[in-house]
Amino acid sequence: MTSQTPIWIYDTTLRDGSQREGLSLSIEDKLRIARQLDQLGIPFIEGGWPGANPKDVQFFWRLKEEPLTQAEIVAFCSTRRPHKTAADDPMLQAILAAGTHWVTIFGKSWDLHVTEGLGTTLDENLAMIRDTIEYLRSQGRRVIYDAEHWFDGYKNNPDYALKTLKTAMDAGAEWLVFCDTNGGTLPHEIGQIVRDVIERLELNPENQGRAGFEPTLSPTTEPDETRHGACASLHSPRLGIHTHNDSDTAVANALMSVVEGVCMVQGTMNGYGERCGNANLCSLIPNLQLKLGYHCMQEEQLATLTQVSRSISEIVNLAPDDHAAFVGRSAFAHKGGIHVSAVERNPLTYEHIPPQQVGNQRRIVISDQSGLSNVLAKAKSFGHELHKQDAACRQILGRLKELENEGYQFEAAEASFDLLMRDALGQKQQHFELKGFQVHSDMLQGIDTPYSNAMATIKVTVNGEDILEVAEGNGPVSALDAALRKALVRFYPEIGTFYLTDYKVRILDGAAGTSAKTRVLVESSNGKQRWTTVGVSANILEASYQAVVEGIEYGLLLQSAVKTAVEQNV
Questions:
Q1: Bridge partners for 267 per DSSP
Q2: Interior angle at CA 176, CA 171 and CA 178, nearest 5
Q3: Cα separation of 80 and 84, whole Å?
Q4: Could you give the CA distance from residue 430 to residue 358 in angstroms, rounded to a whole number?
Q5: How many other CB atoms sit within 10 Å of the CB of residue 232?
Q6: What is the pLDDT of residues 421-451, one digit of tens each?
Q7: What is the pTM of this model?
């Protein structure tokens, strides 16, 4: 294939991705993710296995009522059971009831799985593949055939593995997808096996592209004529790849397959999946489009990749991977002073792509390794214009190094650093003043499980008025946070939208035992933005209070900036 050849992206986050340990999706979660992927421009979205559970049945029905705008939703299922007919298999009736144009069927490629897993004969497995695909084709469905355990099967018995593919092809499958189900195959093996298959099945890799394909189709397009896959002939199926990450090579394996002639890539957002995960589409898509020159989606859609990645992280309730390639918060972060100075002059010195191409942004990290270049660049990112000659610039740098020597960590708490800069510049607003607080914690041993409860009393001054409040929580920090919010919300109602999204405690000098100094990082959110603040003290409650207070102060600062922008535009 040549540069600019379109590549079909097939997302299986809603099915394969949801098999990740600790990840569970409601129907509403699945619908929200599907619509995000639809807007991103993903052509195929695998919705689940209808009939396997009531949730997936309802999901497909909901999408019938409110269809996606451009993506094809795909139902997933296995081949029929041994020694039955496809027409009589209730499992396939549930697939037809889902009402999708496309169905993905997986079948066994590895003779070991046929005889040991299915407990049937090799010939019966071929009959199961043929009967299932022919039946679905007779019912007007278009078929993607996932060759499960393909690479293991091919390495163990290549002739039989090829028979399964040939059977699927002759039965009417429009796509043949090689699955590295165990995730144990390495890139050089992937490339060689894909080449072998193309040669032995007499497929032309130059015909694997999607000539004439328009990534964004009109809603009035007839599905049976020109929707996804219309350029595929039943006599010349196209090839796909589905890789797992057990050897940490899923992305590399998928890229190698595309280079060798595959034109569909299956994967999940953020690499979610069973065991070690699936091929990460957040890495695959920009590598394919920006590095290899293939076409996966429109440029403006690619520029939303970071936002979609993080939004899906929120929906599945898993913290985003800050160090993920392309979309991670640290993907374009620069810490060393020499690096910062160079990247300010020319980003190519330390950035492999412009971060805005994937919707990310450059970050200058502040730490005790920072020089004036870091401080100037960081100040600029927060809207503070400073120069090396400014006294405030050296004051900020000196205070930074002093605090980090005490145990503060600003590279992970940028909101606290912004407040530090504003304080040095005389721009920090004091919304309230703490007079004192007390925390009382109970630990009661119940009959079945221990019961803990905490109560905090806090006194603050707001606009000259003393406020005394008390609140309970399931722990001392929770109670303290609740009491502070209760005291302030009457004066600052927007605090009601703030909430804690993460709380981390680090012991800085473990040798000191229970007298050790602790560092607390608190991540807060208003539902649209996230920010992190830090506190350090030998008293964990004081460190927590510092971080919580700065989190509220910074949230109020963000809300104030929004109000100012709105007023200026009126």
A1: 11
A2: 140
A3: 7
A4: 38
A5: 20
A6: 888 888 888 889 989 899 988 876 655 666 6
A7: 0.71
